[in-house]
Write a structure and sequence with these properties.
heterodimer; A: 6-stranded mixed β-sheet; 4-stranded antiparallel β-sheet; 27% strand; B: mainly alpha
C-alpha cells in the first residue's frame, strides 16, 4: 500500500450561521488504498465534514485536499464517488434513467450504468421508478451512482443507515469488495461492528473535533491480562513488582494488568511460585465499542 | 456545458409537471377558441358579441397572445419553482453538484433546458391556436389566410420572453427558498395579486405623479408586449403607455436579473 494521502485536511472548521461550530479544526489524513472509518456519535460533525470534502459546504476556516484538488473542483470531483446522507434521485425516473442522468453529468459512457447496476445487484429492478424503491434499493442505487466514475476515492456516509440486518450485511460485503485493490474508501458510521469489520484505519470525531486517528488495531490497543487470584493483596504486590504500579489495577475482585497477553505463562508461574492461588488468567481485549465510548465520552447503553 | 444540457434534458423531458403543463396550456387555448366560437355564432348573450372574423387564422397570433399573461406567466412560475425547488427537497442537488461539472455549468444547463421547455410551450400554444383557427375557418367556409411569417415569429418570440421571464422568477425563488412550495406560492401571489395592487396604488397615488414607475414592473411590460400584437379587428385598443421595444428591453433585463440572482444563490450557498 503506497503511503500517499488521498484526503488531507488541516484546521478544517465549519461554523454555521446560527453560531454552531459543527466541525472544529479537523486534521484528517486518509491514505491511498485504505478503507478509512470515520466514527462518531450522531451530530458529531461527520456529515458536515464529508460535505466539506465533496464541496457541498464551504469551510469557515482551514483547508482540505481531496484526490489532489480543492473540494468541489471539477477535476477532483471527476475522481470521487460519493453518497452523502440519503441518496438523492428523481422519483419519477427509473433507477436506470437516474443513473444515466448522473452519468451524463459526469460525462460517463452509459455502458458503465449496466456495469454498476450489476455490481450492486439491482439490474432486475433498474426499470422501476425510484419513488417505488425500498430503502435498501435506494441505498444500493446511491452506491451504484457513486461507483459510476470508477472513482479513486469513494466517500460513503452511513451507507447502511435504514437497512435491515440482512441489507446491512449485504452492504458491508459490497463495501468490503469495493474497497479491494487501490481504491480508497472513506466511510462514516456510528455502527462500531461495521467499522471493525470493514476498516483499516479509523478517525473518531466528537463534538466536531477529531479525537483520534489510528489503525483499528492501535485503537483497540492497550491489551492486557485479567487475573483472579487469592490472596489478592499479595498478588497485586507481586504483579506491581513485575510490571510497575501504573500497569496494575483492581477491577471487581480481579486484577487488570496492562501488558502483553504473551506474558501470561510467566505471570502464572510467578504467582504459583509465591504460593498465590490463581483461579482465572485470561487475555483481555478492548472492544472497539469500549474504545469508542471512552474516546467520545458517551455512556455505554445510554 | 453540453453534458449538463444533455443531463438536464434527460431528467426533464418526461417530467410530469412539464407534460401536464403542456397539455393544460393546449387545453386552455382549445377552451378559449371553443367559447369564443360559440359566442360568435350565438350572439345576444350578456357578454359583448365576438366577431367571427377575429377567430380566423389571419388573427390567430393576436388570440394566442392572451394565453401569455397572466395564465402562461403563472404556469411558468410554477414550473420554474418546481425545477429549482424540488432539487432541494429530493436531495438531488447534492447528487448533481458532486459530479464533474461546476455549479454554474450545471445551472447553465438547467436554464437552457428550462427555456427550451418555455419555447416548446410557446410552440404548443401557437400550434393549437393555428390549428383551431383553421378548423373554425373551414367550418365557416372562410378562406384560410395565415399572418405574415415575421408576425408569427415575432409573436412567438414575445410569448416565449414573457414565459421565460416568469419562469426565471420561479427558478430564482426556488433557489432562494430551497423548496418549491414557498417559491411557487410567493411567485404566484406576486404576479397575480401583489404586483397588480402595487401598480394600482402607485398609479393613483398623489394624482398619478408617480405613474411612470409602474412602467418598470415586469407584469406591465409583459401585458404591453403581448397587447402590441392586437390588430384593429379586435376594436380600438387604448394607446399603450409602454412601447413594444421598451417592453422587450425591460423584460430582457428582468430575465438577466432573475438568472443572475439564481446563479449567485446556487454558487454561494452551502448545500446542507
Amino acid at each position: 500500500m503506497e503511503n500517499i494521502t488521498v484526503v488531507e485536511t488541516s484546521g478544517l472548521s465549519k461554523r454555521f450561521g446560527n453560531g454552531v461550530l459543527a466541525v472544529d479544526s479537523v486534521e484528517m489524513s486518509v491514505r491511498r488504498g485504505e478503507v478509512y472509518g470515520f466514527l462518531g456519535p450522531n451530530g458529531a460533525g461527520k456529515t458536515t465534514t464529508l460535505r466539506m470534502l465533496v464541496g457541498l459546504i464551504r469551510p469557515t476556516s482551514g483547508m482540505a485536499t481531496v484526490a489532489g484538488h480543492s473540494p468541489g473542483d471539477p477535476a477532483g470531483l471527476a475522481k470521487i464517488g460519493s453518497l452523502v446522507e440519503a441518496p438523492g434521485f428523481y422519483p419519477y425516473l427509473s433507477g436506470r434513467e437516474n443513473l444515466k442522468v448522473v452519468a451524463d453529468f459526469a460525462r460517463i459512457n452509459h455502458k458503465r450504468v449496466e456495469e454498476v447496476l450489476d455490481i450492486v445487484e439491482l439490474t432486475s429492478r433498474a426499470g422501476r421508478k425510484f419513488g417505488t424503491y425500498s430503502t435498501g434499493m435506494k441505498q444500493r442505487l446511491g452506491v451504484a451512482a457513486a461507483l459510476l466514475k470508477d472513482p479513486e476515492l469513494l466517500i460513503l456516509d452511513e451507507p447502511t443507515s435504514g437497512l435491515d440486518p440482512q441489507g446491512m450485511a449485504e452492504m458491508r460485503k459490497l463495501i468490503k469488495d469495493i474497497g479491494q485493490g487501490n481504491r480508497t474508501v472513506l466511510l462514516s458510521s456510528h455502527l462500531l461492528p461495521e467499522v471493525e469489520q470493514i476498516c483499516d484505519r479509523v478517525g473518531v470525531i466528537r463534538g466536531g473535533k477529531l479525537v483520534t486517528q489510528s489503525t483499528v488495531q492501535e485503537l483497540l490497543g492497550e491489551e492486557g491480562v485479567l487475573v483472579t487470584a487469592q490472596p489478592i493483596d499479595r498478588a497485586i504486590e507481586l504483579l506491581t513488582g513485575m510490571f510497575g504500579a501504573a500497569a496494575v489495577s483492581r477491577q471487581n475482585g480481579s486484577i487488570r494488568l496492562r501488558t502483553d497477553p504473551a506474558s501470561s505463562l510467566e505471570i502464572n508461574s510467578r504467582l504459583m511460585a509465591a504460593g498465590i492461588g490463581v483461579s482465572e488468567l485470561r487475555p483481555i481485549e478492548r472492544s472497539l465499542e469500549e474504545a469508542f465510548f471512552q474516546l467520545t465520552g458517551e455512556k455505554q447503553g445510554s | 456545458m453540453i453534458a449538463s444540457i444533455k443531463a438536464e434534458w434527460r431528467k426533464n423531458r418526461f417530467r410530469p409537471a412539464f407534460l401536464v403543463s403542456a397539455g393544460l396550456i393546449a387545453g386552455i387555448v382549445v377552451l378559449f377558441y371553443s367559447a369564443e366560437w360559440y359566442q360568435a355564432i350565438h350572439p345576444g348573450g350578456p357578454r359583448e358579441s365576438v366577431s367571427i372574423l377575429t377567430l380566423f387564422p389571419d388573427q390567430f397570433v393576436n388570440n394566442v397572445m392572451g394565453a401569455g399573461f397572466p395564465l402562461g406567466a403563472a404556469m411558468a412560475i410554477v414550473l420554474g419553482a418546481l425545477i429549482a425547488g424540488s432539487e432541494y427537497s429530493w436531495g438531488t442537488l447534492k447528487t448533481v453538484f458532486t459530479q464533474r461539472p461546476g455549479r454554474l455549468t450545471t445551472l447553465t444547463g438547467r436554464v437552457v433546458v428550462f427555456q427550451a421547455w418555455m419555447a416548446i410551450m410557446t410552440v404548443i400554444i401557437f400550434a393549437v391556436g393555428a390549428g383551431y383557427s383553421a378548423v373554425i375557418a373551414s367550418a365557416q367556409g372562410h378562406a384560410i389566410v395565415w399572418p405574415a411569417a415575421i408576425d408569427i415569429v415575432k409573436g412567438m418570440g414575445a410569448l416565449w420572453l414573457v414565459l421565460a421571464v416568469n419562469g426565471s422568477l420561479g427558478m430564482a425563488l426556488g433557489a432562494l427558498f430551497r423548496q418549491s412550495a414557498a417559491a411557487l406560492g410567493i411567485g404566484l401571489i406576486y404576479v397575480l395579486a401583489v404586483q397588480i395592487i402595487v401598480v394600482r396604488f402607485i398609479a393613483a397615488f398623489n394624482g398619478g405623479t408617480y405613474k411612470w414607475i409602474t412602467n418598470w414592473f415586469d407584469g406591465q411590460n409583459a401585458t404591453a408586449l403581448l397587447s402590441s400584437f392586437t390588430s384593429p379587428a379586435f376594436g380600438n385598443p387604448t394607446p399603450p403607455t409602454i412601447g413594444a421595444e421598451q417592453a422587450v428591453l425591460t423584460l430582457v433585463a428582468y430575465l438577466a436579473v432573475f438568472i443572475v440572482a439564481a446563479a449567485a444563490l446556487l454558487r454561494q450557498r452551502d448545500v446542507t
